[in-house]
Amino acid sequence: MADNHRAAPQDCLPDDYFHFVCLFKLAAILYMEFDQQGVPSDLDGAIALYRAALHLLPSNHSDRFMPLDNLAICFNRRFEQRSVLSDLDEAIELNRDALRFCPPSHSERFRPLNNIANSLRDRFRQRGILSDLDEAIKLGRDALLLCPTGHPDRSMSLNNLALSLRERFQQRGVSSDLDEAIESDRAALLLRPPGHIDRFTSLNNLALCLGTRFRQQGVPSDLDEAIELNLSALSLCPPGHPDRSMSLDNLAQSLRERFQQHGILSDLDKSIEFHRAALLLLPDDHSRRSSSLNNLALGLEDRFNQRGVPSDLDEAIKHNRAALLLRPHGHSDRPMSLNNLASDLKVRFKRRGVLSDLDEAIELHEAALHLRPHGHSDRPMSLYNLASSLLERFEQRGVPSDLDEAFRLFLQLSHLSNAASQIDLRAAKLWADSADIFNHDSALLAYKTALKFLDQRVALLSSSSRHFGVIREAVSSLATDAFSCSVRRGALTTAVELVEQGRAVFWTQLARFRSPLDRISLSGETGVALAEEFKRLSFRLRNAFDQSTENQSPEIRQLTTQWDDVVSRIRKLSDFSRFLLPPLFSDLQKAAEAGPVVIVNASRHSCDALIILSGQDPVHVPLDIAPIEVFELSSKFQSLSEQFGSSDHQRKLIGILRKLWEYIVHPIVKALEESEVRPGSRIWWCPTAEFTLLPLHAAGPYEKHRDNLSDIYISSYTPTLAALIRARQRVSQDVSPQHFVAIGQGNPDSGKKLSCIAPELEDVARRLVPIVSFTSLKDSDATVQGALDALNHNQWLHLACHGTPNRTQPFESSFAMRDGPLMIKDIIRSDWQNPEFAFLSACHTAVGDEKSPDELIHLAAAMQFSGFRSVIGSMWSVDDEVARQVVSTFYRHLVDGLGRLDCTRAAVALHKTMKSLRKKIPLEQQIVFVHTGV
Question: InterPro entries in the record, alphabetically (predicted)?
Answer without folding.
Answer: CHAT_dom, Sel1-like, TPR-like_helical_dom_sf
